[in-house]
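Input sequence (73 aa), recorded before submission:
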Amino acid sequence: MPLLTRSLATVECQAEEIMERHSHAIIVGRLLSMELSHGMSGLVYWNGQYVEINHDTDLDLLAAVSIPLAHIR
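Predicted structure, token format:
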């Protein structure tokens, strides 16, 4: 199975049901295995570009891309 390098998590499932609706499909699967990365970095789309954020070193950048809960309605 191909995996994305430097991903935060890897999930392997066995497809149990596929529900097709128009141009999309919803796949319901049974979890076979899961691995989490030891790193706490992630990829976000911000100001028209993809930016990698490392939780340990980019706390200022994390604050800049975060949305305060008061603005979510």
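Checked by second reader. Residues 17 and 54 are 36 Å apart (CA to CA).
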